[in-house]
Amino acid sequence: MNIFFNSNNMEFHLQNDKISYIIKVLGTGDLGHLYFGKRLNHRENFSNMLQIFEHQVPYTPEQIDGVSGFALDTLKQEFPAFGTGDYREPAYVILQENGSRVTDYKFSKYEIFNRKPSLKGLPQTYVENDDEAKTLQITLKDKHLNSEIILSYTIYKNYPIITRNSNIINNGSSPLTLERFLSFNMDIPQKNYEFMHLSGAWARERHVVTTPINQNRISIDSKRGASSSNNNPFIALKEIGADEFKGEYIGVNLVYSGNFLAQVEKDHYDNIRINMGINPFNFSWILEKDETFEAPEVVMCYSDSGLNALSQNYHKFYQNNLIRGEWKHKARPILINNWEATYFDFDEDKIVQIAIKAKELGVELFVLDDGWFGTRNGDTSGLGDWWSNLSKLPSGVEGLSKKIDEMGMKFGLWFEPEMVNPDTDLYRQHPEWALSIPNRKPTLSRNQLTLDLGRAEVRDYLYEKLSKILRESKISYIKWDMNRNMTDVWSGVLEGKRQGETAHRYILGVYDLMERLTTEFPHILFESCAGGGNRFDAGMLYYMPQIWTSDDTDAVERLKIQYGTSIIYPISSMGAHVSAVPNHQTGRITSIDTRANVAFFGAFGYELDLNHITDDEANSVKRQIEFFKENRELLQFGTFHRIESPFENGFQNVSWIMVNKDQSEAILGVYRIHSIPNPGFDKAFAAGLNPDFKYKIEHEDILGEIFYGDELMYSGIKFRKIGIDTHDSKNLENLGDYSSKIIKITKI
Ligand code: DGJ
């Protein structure tokens, strides 16, 4: 890993074993982008990569008087502005006192150092030892405004990853209004790329979508106040023809949980501009003298060997360099959550009965979900009144948590701190604490309003209430929920001209509260949640090592959701539960084994009343728990390879595999969506094994027992042909719709 600086021609080359990133300071002081991709040998001069014409650019503003060819509109840039000749989407827009938005930030200085500098008040990736990363900081200055922009680039020893962020400082005497200040920009020369992102909705989160890029702009965003189920703050450029195992991908993921914008724009010379950051829509930020504004970080990852490799690098990087605290590398407990078992309809006795049965079958942690506080008997009241509902729980959370603890199980609790129901003591005392506009009726969603976490007194109230419960009870897990998107974004503590700051200040407030609570209670395992997966992002993972992936617990739908989520986020971070059938979101019936076979690839748990299953199913649950305990390290922290995608080939089959570090053990999951009569010969393929290792498979449906890794990966695993004889009704469950197999592969 190195950062070279060629002072003769002002070029920076960030390089490690896998990637190179090259920047050039142009004669005009503009910052040109030269290259990002597979590692290049270092040379003293990369100026040939510049895109400057040797003739006048037709009908295009040129930057230097009398010198033809230097047009910002055709130049590949690092952090472009609008107004001086570049007509593409800019990285920033700054409104000045005279009403102009034209700026002139030019190269001023640079610094190269070991380590990664930290961001203030924002989630961020980090290194444990300074020699794991090197950082380049380039300062641009607008002399007229007396303001600086600092662009940070960090390269890592062990990953094909560059993290970037940008800061702006106002040293001038007049305030500056940021109307847009994105985290990063990169202009990539012509290449056959497609645009990939993860789109969805509640219960259909993070489906993989690929779109052709023509001469136009494709943008995804969130205006919801949360990163959202609709579009994850991640985009990738995918080389046409690339797939899980081959081809080039450039991924960019924003470490942020609020409104964002991510876009690509192909210009008239086929250059692709890609940029991302806080959504400029409904955003503005006034920067007074001596103030700094810091944009969130982006994590750029490169792969020239397919999407699996891109994801595996994101997974490892996030496990080692984003997630923090005691639970970072610790195997997660098998939990049972009462939400789908009881919804709001429970009392202490019902809860204890669910816990007793779960304990008997081997579950390790009981999680009490929504409904334990205030007057919360439905979703119309209670949020904000964070004390036990004694009519449901006579000995309170304190007493219940002790009972569960005495049973030999850990106890976890649900909160939704960011919200308030109008029908609460809190709202009656402090209606001004909710986001709402004076003299207008605020819009409710799930009968609740959003508290203004930009206000310090709101955060203090929540901190005091939550920490009191955490201190008094025996709590080892918290599910932190957030169940509505923002409307009526207006804060009572900001003057009119500053209202564009409200949504970002809210997110900074959420981060502040999370930081305080996770610091004071380091032993607690925190799981983030937002109406399922409405805030599944790298920002949240910095505070909480796992996130509830989706409210959709249907095993078949979960194949898509978990597959899509795994494009960026580690398997250990995805909450995945076995729930009752018919499934509460789709009405679909799947076997208890298939439900577990999908949920095994996540932070595994149950979300049903185990008293209401058959004895056969209870035996299966017992076996599932034993299997998961034996293989937990591998399943949560191994290397994940996706094999057959639910987004291709008509969603017939899905498969994926988890392989341990030394490739001595693997678990393959194979899922059949639609069965067909009189099928051909069925095969599954492994991935990620050592081709030269000998492996053993003991599975009644598989022909043979001992294989080399190469055969399992390249020739495939052949299943016994079962069920084609109309007189043979044995093994039908292995054949039908939604059947699945878990295959353990062990080196001998
Ligand atoms: C939404 C969550 O995603 C569910 O798991 C559950 O906790 C409910 N909220 C409770 O209101």
From TrEMBL:
Keywords: Glycosidase, Hydrolase. PROSITE patterns: ALPHA_GALACTOSIDASE. It catalyses: Hydrolysis of terminal, non-reducing alpha-D-galactose residues in alpha-D-galactosides, including galactose oligosaccharides, galactomannans and galactolipids. Pfam families: Glyco_hydro_36C, Glyco_hydro_36N, Melibiase. One of its GO terms (molecular function) is alpha-galactosidase activity. Residues 654-743 form the Glycosyl hydrolase family 36 C-terminal domain. Residues 29-288 form the Glycosyl hydrolase family 36 N-terminal domain. Belongs to the glycosyl hydrolase. This is Alpha-galactosidase.
